[in-house]
Design a protein that fits this description.
With 228 residues, the protein is α+β, with helices and mostly antiparallel strands. The protein folds into two domains: 3-107 and 208-225, Beta Polymerase, domain 2, CATH 3.30.460; 110-201, no CATH class. Helices cover 57% and strands 11% of the residues. It contains eleven helices and five strands; from the N terminus they run αβαβββααβααααααα. It has a five-stranded mixed β-sheet with strand order 3-4-2-1-5. β3 (53-55) and β4 form a beta hairpin. It is globular.
Length: 228
């Protein structure tokens, strides 16, 4: 079975991500498609296992195999958690609905570490651009600010919301290069400090509910093996 066949025939959940999901789309924005496919259980009985992810077949499309997706979500991977909370769902079947019903099982205070680590790595790239070119890639700077806002609000409320709402105009001003880099840096520091304070009183549990997720994955694999 070809990788693109897995995406075409066995997708359980698909959504739109990127600027369109964040409420930051402009006329030239791409449509980033993300999805989860469940490889038939019988494929895992072979020496050659099914892929953990597939690029395509459409442009700007990327999908994860169900187990890989759950494993990354349990590690509080920012891209995966946001995919689960996209407001723009393109497709979902019964297994996909079970997956979406588990969204809270993946959320924990671990997001503070993973989001902050990801943000730090992105910020180093922006600083390298400033040293080399005199300015950062403003689009990336905008999305880093958005991520830090999302992390802070998630820790404060226990809910992950993708749409930036009233912050849209100020974030797009950053994307257009209308905000000084020193001001952007100041905002990043402030947001990181606010997220740090929120982590101490967050309503989120200390760790994700791994047992609940594993029970779902086991059930999904069993149904597939039995032809259900």
């Amino acid at each position: 079975m070809l990788p693109e066949d897995l995406v075409r025939d066995h997708t359980v959940y698909a959504c739109v991500m990127g600027s369109r999901a964040f409420g930051l789309a402009t006329d030239g924005s791409d449509t980033d498609l993300r999805g989860v496919f469940q490889a038939p259980t019988a494929l895992f009985w072979r020496f050659e296992k099914p892929p953990t992810h597939v690029e395509g077949p459409a442009d700007e499309q990327f999908s994860w195999e169900l187990e890989r997706f759950c494993a990354l979500a349990l590690r509080a991977n920012p891209n995966i958690l946001e995919c689960l909370h996209s407001p723009l769902v393109e497709y979902v079947d019964d297994t996909g609905r079970e997956l979406l019903a588990l969204r809270d099982a993946f959320l924990s205070r671990q997001v503070h570490v993973t989001f902050a680590r990801y943000a730090l790595g992105q910020n180093k790239k922006l600083e390298a651009d400033v040293r080399r070119y005199g300015a950062p890639r403003w689009k990336h700077a905008m999305h880093l600010l958005r991520l830090l806002m999302s992390c802070r609000d998630l820790l404060r409320t226990g809910e992950l919301t993708l749409d930036v709402g009233p912050a849209r105009d100020s974030l797009l001003a950053v994307k257009r290069g209308e905000v000084l880099w020193t001001e952007v840096e100041s905002r990043m520091v402030r947001l990181a400090e606010e997220a740090d304070r929120a982590s101490h009183t967050s309503p989120l549990p200390q760790a994700p509910d791994r047992a609940r997720v594993e029970a779902f994955l086991t059930s999904a694999r069993r149904r597939s093996a039995l032809g259900g």
